[in-house]
Amino acid sequence: MYLKRQIFLVFGVSKSGGAVAKFLLSKGGVVYLYDELSGERVEQAMQVLIEQGARRVTSAELSHMSEVCDGLILSP
Predict the structure, then answer these.
(1) DSSP strand E in the chain: where?
(2) 64: helix, strand or coil
(3) 27 phi and psi angles, rounded to 5 deg
(4) pLDDT tens, residue order, the chain (76 aa)
(5) What local confidence, expressed as pLDDT, does residue 1 receive?
(6) How remote is the C-alpha of 59 from its chain's centroid?
(7) How many CA atoms does the CB half-sphere of 60 hold within 13 Å?
(8) Closest CA to 71 of 6, 5, 17
(9) Can you say whether the dihedral through the CA atoms of 60, 63, 64, 65 is positive or negative?
């Protein structure tokens, strides 16, 4: 699978979601992040990924993501 320039939404930024997002970013993918949970741990994980090039998505933007994303990754 050629990941460079493909667009992904990672839904859930816990251990597995964060690991997938880092992998996709390292391969040149465009990564959007969303998590329903809040709190210090989630915010820290989000911030690290944003610093690496990911973009945060709000709940209001979710409905439009199906139009732009090539793949959806659901974190367990």
Answers:
(1) 7-11, 30-34, 55-56, 71-74
(2) helix
(3) -95, 5
(4) 678 889 999 999 988 999 999 999 999 999 999 998 888 888 999 999 999 999 999 989 988 888 899 999 998 7
(5) 65
(6) 13
(7) 0
(8) 6
(9) positive
Which residues are registered as beta bridge partners of 7? 30
CB 32 within 8 A of CB 54: yes
In angstroms, the CA 33 to CA 54 distance is 7
Helix pair 40-51, 15-26: axis angle to 10 deg:
10
Measured CA to CA, the distance from residue 62 to residue 72 in angstroms comes to: 11
As to burial, measured by CB atoms within 10 angstroms (0-12 exposed, 13-18 middle, 19+ buried), residue 65 is: middle
Q: What pLDDT shows up at residue 5?
A: 83
What was the pLDDT predicted at 49? 96
For residue 41, the model assigns a pLDDT of 87
